[in-house]
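Notebook entry, structure prediction.
Reason for the run: the old model in the group folder had no record of what sequence produced it. Starting over properly, with the input documented here first.
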Amino acid sequence: MSDQAHRTASDRETERGNDFDRARDQAQRMQIHSESGVLFEQAMAQTRMAICLADPNQEDQPIVFVNRAFRELTGYEEDEIVGRNCRFLQGPGTDPAQVRKLREAIASEDVVVVELLNYRKDGSTFWNALHLGPIYNEDGSVRYLFGSQWDVTDVHAARADEKHARMMEREISHRMKNMFAVISSIVTMTGKLDGAEGLAEKINARIRSLGRAHEAMLEVSFTEGPTDPRKLFEDLLTPYAPQGRDSLTLTGGKVPLDSNVVSVLALTLHELAINAVKHGAFAAQEGHVSLEWQVIDGSEGDGRLRLLWTETGGADPGPGPERHGVGMTIIGRMLAMGEGEIRYDWRAEGLHVDIQFPTSI
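New structure, fully documented this time:
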């Protein structure tokens, strides 16, 4: 669930609590000033909040009043409700611990709020945010138990979805780490058997880069819409930067990213960072890399992700071809397969790279 969704749910709960207090106070006043209960019944019948009154002074604390909203929420008629204890709405899925909280509150004359899984007349379920509190006589004795019910099934479902998403995130993260570890082990063993340990380490570095990229993206993988890739870029580039995060300037907002785009981004930035360590900005303590990103319109109006990589303050960049090794060839071919492109500009102050590719590959 997003922060806005959490705030909205919290605001709704606060509002409902205020409604409960106002309705209970109104019921208290009307009970005192109108023993006939006519005014109370008229007022309570009109509210959209489901309300019931129970008599704690009778055996088994039966319900003595319900309004229309209560009947509509539960599906029962008035003559099927009045005279029964409110537990008739409970069922096999109702949490006994929440029921105990209700009983304890009644015994101590406290106001309590609980969430119960309740059952309608047709057998369907709903999550009930039940507010329960006492209404007193003028002499201080308890006259009624006042209960208001709110259907919070949608809020409860959102919480369940969020919990499930987090569980899935942890499981995916665990499996992903295992997968990359297995691949890395295979590459390492193959390199030793073939006498190509150096090549194996280069491949493993690229695998580790992919692993960091996908690990960073798990935090937003269940979020719909554009994503802020700043953390992804930090995780990818900081290990190569001579002064860590201080050697980087990251500028850009949220952009659409799918898993294929993340893979291309990870390998592209990995190769650029490795080259910067060998020949460019990251080869000097004072070197700096600026990375900017944005979504631009393609020639036919299709969205394209554009990244501008700028190196300054590093080692002498030298002629372009010296920095155009296997890694950059890999980048070029990957981008070409995804209808992307890359342009290099070896300037005196450092390398400038312009990368563009579709937001979905």
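Summary: Residues 162-223 form one domain.
The old model has been moved to the deprecated folder.
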